[in-house]
Amino acid sequence: MAVTGLILIAFLLFHMYGNLKVFIGEEAFNHYAEWLKTDMLYPIFPKGGFIWCFRLVMLAALVLHMWSAITLWLRAKKANPDSYAVKKRLERTYSSSMMRWGGIILAGFLVFHLYQFTIAPRDPASPYNSVVTDFSQWYFVLFYALWLIAVCMHVRHGFWSAFATLGANTSEESHMVLNALAWIVALLIYIGFILPPVCILFGLIGA
After folding, report:
1. Which residue, 103, 158, 144, is CA-closest to 19?
2. Alpha-carbon torsion, ordered 141, 145, 147, 148, to 10 deg
3. N or C: which end of the chain has fewer CB within 10 A?
């Protein structure tokens, strides 16, 4: 679960960086989208070949991450059933207690997000126009901003938990460093993803 979680976080950072190209302009953003879908790692892969390998890897990481989460939840439930008269409550942050439901919310919106921008975009010929058209609607930006909060809560706890699971949480100092890095990564992802929609909504992009 730790390894797949870190793979998914790395993807979010890469995806966030790509989204920021919308600030450069339509030509640059569309060129990036075209490169990603057809020319990435060409000629090592045939045109359009790498993106499908990449999608399969990400799908495998997502499925394994969800399978790991369900497995761990079932093990925990078996080890500490509700029938126990006395249950020890572990200290948990709000984000950690919401990891399971947060994951379900994220998966649901991910399907919608893929449908909107990959499967059935507003303008298949111009990813830039599709993004600008959708984020010109205030209610969609609001919904997206709320969804990003769920994403970043999941990322903040998941980042810290993953490195702790892999053995990086060895002292009080490392605990503090990991927690600070988790907040930095979560905030970076939130700011990086929400900036383009907000700027589009207020006419700073695509005007």
Report:
1. 144
2. 130
3. C
* Domain edges within the chain: 2-201
> In the CATH scheme, what is the code of domain 2-201?
1.20.1300.10
Per the document, the length of the chain is: 207
Taking only the tens of pLDDT, the chain with its 207 residues reads: 899 999 999 999 999 999 999 999 999 999 998 888 888 888 888 888 888 888 899 889 988 998 988 888 788 777 766 544 444 444 455 555 556 666 666 777 777 777 777 777 888 889 999 999 989 999 999 999 988 998 888 899 889 889 988 888 788 888 899 999 999 999 999 999 999 999 999 999 976
Query: Considering only CA atoms, which of 189, 151, 159, 144 is closest in space to residue 7?
Result: 159
